[in-house]
Write a structure and sequence with these properties.
The chain is of the alpha/beta class and 421 residues long. It contains twelve helices and 20 strands. The protein is globular, with a radius of gyration of 22 Å.
Length: 421
């Protein structure tokens, strides 16, 4: 399950939907900068780290090795779910997942502030610095919590570098490694210990037993560190390939790649956005769609659907089919538009430009459709969709070359329909 735009496509809802048929739901990258919102029996659950499948009693939710884990946030989320009657007893966390520690969040905020006008719009949750430490081999992993001597030794080694940055670059006080180790070990070790596991082995055991496994990505294709609109990206690989490296499962085991796209596009933070709207249509998308960050509350930037982006996402992820969300947000619109190409320096292009400067100059070329002016929230069968909505969805499928199999018509768990089997 991958996002095909800039995130916030509604992946959590379809993860929850498909979980009925699964034995395991595995989160494979990102951290608590991602928010998945689920609406179940009029109750809203905003999840950050725990995989969406946790709401089903038969699911083993897994946090894979590619995720960066703030242990304090994870424990708070487990506690929140327990208070609301949701058991996390089946949750398993990879011992190879890297830890986000308080100094990562401090560095994240300092880096962003010192970038000034060139800031990236990060959530300041410490995600980037934690992945940077991982790449520099300075990171601490979840399994390190299980050996106090190793944990303290690795933390001291990591802070030799980090404290130099804090004190000499940012003029901040150094972090005391012993005090931080005391806090993390005393508050996190015992509560987290029952969840720590060799999740690669766990997943393969499930696959060998014929179980169905769903890999759940956070963020989306165009926030991918390699394939996104760099540097306005996240610090991991939300694309389908990230499911392999983030879990230890090879690509031959993956038989379906479902891409999730909103019926329009939104973006959080800075970066190019060819179809961005600054008019009443955009404001209505934000207001009707409640386009504010699950974790941060930030207003999302709205825009018309971009088929150029989606064609590229189909290639990068080897998508087999699509799930379209929030089509109901457009119910009252007189017209709806789909970007089918770009005009760059007077030339028409139909593929996503690889050069960032060209993408910044890209002007959308639109195909315009009449709105359906119908409340779709009660629609559960394809034959009950108005012809205008059918045409809109069919055009998307034709433009990108893969079928639309699922359509969300509202935020509730049962507000969706199947278009193709």
């Amino acid at each position: 399950m991958v996002g095909t735009q800039w995130g916030d496509e509604g992946k959590g809802k379809f993860t929850d939907l498909l979980s009925k048929e699964m034995s395991m739901v595995v989160r494979y990258q990102g951290g608590h900068n991602a928010g998945h919102t689920l609406v179940v029996d009029d109750e809203t659950f905003a999840l950050q780290l725990v995989p969406s499948g946790v709401l089903y009693d038969h699911i083993v939710p897994v946090i894979g090795n590619g995720v960066v884990v703030d242990p304090f946030v994870l424990l708070a989320e487990i506690d929140m779910l327990a208070r609301r009657g949701v058991s996390c007893s089946r949750l398993r966390v990879s011992g190879n997942a890297h830890l986000i520690l308080p100094y990562h969040q401090q560095l994240d905020a300092l880096h962003e502030r010192h970038l000034g006008k060139a800031k990236l719009g990060t959530t300041k949750r410490g995600i980037g610095p934690a992945y940077a430490d991982k790449a520099m081999r300075l990171g601490l992993r979840v399994q390190d919590l299980l050996d106090e001597m190793i944990f303290r030794e690795k933390l001291r080694a990591a802070l030799i570098h980090t404290n130099k940055v804090l004190t000499k670059v940012f003029n901040r006080l150094p972090v005391d490694p012993d005090a931080l180790a005391d806090k993390v070990l005393s508050e996190c070790l015992d509560p987290l210990k029952p969840y720590i596991a060799d999740t690669t082995d766990l997943i393969h055991e499930g696959l060998e037993a014929g179980q169905q496994v769903l890999f759940e990505g956070a963020q989306a294709t165009f926030l991918d560190l390699d394939h996104g609109t760099y540097p306005f990206v996240t610090s991991s690989n939300p694309t389908a390939g990230g499911a392999c490296t983030g879990t230890g499962v090879g690509p031959r085991h993956i038989d379906r790649v479902l891409g999730v796209a909103k019926a329009y596009v939104t973006r959080v933070g800075a970066g190019p956005f060819p179809t961005e709207l600054f008019d009443d249509y955009g404001n209505r998308m934000v207001d009707i769609g409640r386009e504010f960050g699950t974790n941060t509350g930030r207003r999302r930037r709205p825009g018309w659907f971009d088929a150029v982006m989606l064609r590229h996402a189909v290639r990068v992820n080897s998508l087999t089919d699509l799930a379209i969300t929030k089509i109901d947000v457009l119910d009252t619109f007189d017209v709806v538009k789909i970007c089918v190409g770009y005009e760059i320096d007077g030339q028409r292009v139909d593929k996503l430009p690889y050069h960032q400067s060209e993408l910044h100059r890209a002007k959308p070329v639109y195909q315009e459709f009449p709105g359906w002016k119908t409340d779709l929230s009660t629609v559960r069968r394809p034959e009950d969709l108005p012809s205008e909505a059918i045409r809109y969805l069919a055009f998307i499928a034709d433009q990108v070359g893969v079928p639309v199999s699922l359509v969300s018509t509202g935020p509730g768990r049962d507000e969706y329909l199947h278009l193709v089997s």
